[in-house]
Amino acid sequence: MKKILFILVILAFCGSLVAQKHQHHSHKKPPPLEEKETRKVLFGVYFGPTVDWIVPTSNELTRKAAKAGFITGLGVDINLTPKKILYFSTGAFVRYLQGEFEFTNRYKFNFNNFLVLDTLNTVRTYQTTYLAIPTGIKVRTAIAKDCVFLGSLGLYHNFRIAGKQFDHFSLPGVDDEYMITTKKVNNKDASLFAESAYVGIGFEYLLGHNTRVSAHVNYGCQFNYFNSKAENNVTHERFKSIAHSLQIVVGFLF
User: pTM for this one?
Assistant: First the structure.
């Protein structure tokens, strides 16, 4: 009986040690996210509004108000350094840009088979959709309290994939409250290819091992908007301008 009691005491003592060890491990804190984040490539989905204003660089045009647009697409960031600070950034985005200009334009009017030419002040609205391919760099800070701050710099290579344009004006002798708007036609003035530079700052928050939520503010400058054939049909001078863009973009990285 004494031997049995002794064995039971030994087993109870061992069980108590095992239970304490298990309890100690169960209360151990999981490793922080920065220790679990080991990916070298980040994939992102982004979308957001833009405020765009196209500024003439020739005397043929007068800029009107800024217009709203949007940008959306997929991004890929590839780590270039062991500490995950410097990344190469690329992807594919759809960018919608609008702009308005005032200038003098000559119109043809047909009244009862009688052709009339008239030169009028007009406001032309341009709407353009681009496929934009970015190539740039991102600098990310080290992860601290699940937060990352970053800066970005690079180029957008913009390919025009769609667009419309239309005019509105008033006829001579008619009150300005009655405006004539032409039908929308294909945008023939925008360049098929346009290069842009961009710079921005951003913030990312780690939701988990595989997901981040991000917010960015970017400024972009498109070096050209018009193609070489876009001109004033009165003076035959070329249209020239650059396009500025302020982009507020949110997204998720996986």
Answer: 0.81
Strand ranges inside 1-40, DSSP E: none
116-133 average pLDDT score: 93
Token code pair at residue 97: 């840009």
Residue 34 reports pLDDT greater than 60: no
CA dist 77 and 43 (Å) reads 7
Residue 5: phi and psi, rounded to 5, are: -65, -40
Mean pLDDT value of segment 91-117: 88
Tokens at 145, concatenated = 């309290």
Contact at 8 Å (CB) between 212 and 75?
no
Question: CB under 8 Å to 105, separation ≥6 — which residues?
Answer: 119, 120, 121, 122, 124, 167, 169, 232, 233, 234
Q: Which residue has the tokens 């500024």?
A: 55
- β-bridge partners, 66: none
Q: DSSP for 109-127?
A: EEETTEEEEEEEEEEEEEE
